């Protein structure tokens, strides 16, 4: 059974692009001349840093962390930017805020959040600054907790995927060599 890929691409262009992007980045990981452990640690560290609310500095932080721990920098950058990009950052941070609220006992509703940024001015900047700092602390604590939970899962899933893919590639190469002889 042959699938008409051109028809599918025309019918679902966004899904096709997303799937192709995922496959591209996965192949980028697998083809790196780095050990599977370094790739897996780099991606897991990237996801951990991606959960922290430091969006403008994520790439710099992950490059520094990957350099210190001698892991794959590309995997780290991809892990941090795919998790919290402009599309996914608000839902991720909003969910982390609920987790952080458990540790910082401060009521912070959606209405308060909305009013905080609507009524910002120079006269109430001190009060708004304190609220933003409390919100930042909540999201940071929630992000650290979620990052610690997700780190081992991301590591083992990536490690197993890279190892299996490399084994499949080496098996295919051996098969081709035996056919050519």
Overview of the molecule:
The radius of gyration is 21 Å and the shape is elongated. With 181 residues, it is mainly alpha-helical. The mean pLDDT is 82. It has one domain (38-180). It contains 8 helices and no strands. The chain has helices spanning 5-11, 13-31, 36-50, 58-69, 73-83, 89-103, 110-118, 125-180. α1 (5-11) packs across α2 (13-31), α2 crosses α8 and α3 runs antiparallel to α4.
Query: What Rg is obtained from the alpha carbons, in whole angstroms?
Result: 21 Å
User: What share of the residues lie within helices?
Assistant: over 70%
* Strands, total number: 0
Overall spatial form: elongated
Catalogue the unreliable spans.
none
* Biggest sheet statistics: none
Query: What is the number of helices?
Result: 8
Mean pLDDT: 82
> What is the strand content?
under 5%
Termini gap: 32 Å
Number of domains: 1
Secondary-structure class: mainly alpha
Provide the succession of SSEs.
HHHHHHHH
Tag the structure with descriptive keywords.
181 residues, 8 helices, 0% strand
In brief, what are we looking at here?
The chain has 181 residues and is mainly alpha-helical. It has helices spanning 5-11, 13-31, 36-50, 58-69, 73-83, 89-103, 110-118, 125-180.
In terms of topology, how is this protein built?
Elements: H1 5-11, H2 13-31, H3 36-50, H4 58-69, H5 73-83, H6 89-103, H7 110-118, H8 125-180
């Amino acid at each position: 059974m042959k699938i008409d890929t051109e028809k599918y691409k025309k019918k679902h262009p966004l899904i096709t692009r997303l799937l192709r992007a995922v496959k591209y980045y996965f192949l980028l990981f697998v083809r790196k001349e780095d050990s599977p452990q370094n790739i897996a640690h780099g991606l897991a560290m990237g996801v951990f840093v991606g959960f922290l609310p430091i969006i403008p500095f994520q790439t710099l932080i992950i490059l520094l962390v990957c350099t210190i721990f001698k892991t794959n920098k590309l995997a780290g950058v991809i892990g941090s930017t795919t998790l919290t990009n402009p599309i996914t950052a608000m839902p991720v941070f909003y969910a982390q805020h609920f987790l952080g609220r458990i540790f910082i006992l401060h009521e912070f509703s959606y209405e308060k959040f909305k009013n905080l940024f609507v009524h910002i001015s120079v006269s109430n900047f001190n009060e708004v600054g304190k609220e933003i700092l409390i919100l930042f602390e909540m999201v940071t604590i929630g992000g650290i907790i979620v990052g610690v939970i997700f780190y081992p899962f991301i590591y083992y899933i990536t490690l197993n995927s890279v190892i299996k893919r490399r084994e499949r590639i080496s098996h295919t190469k051996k098969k081709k060599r035996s056919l050519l002889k």
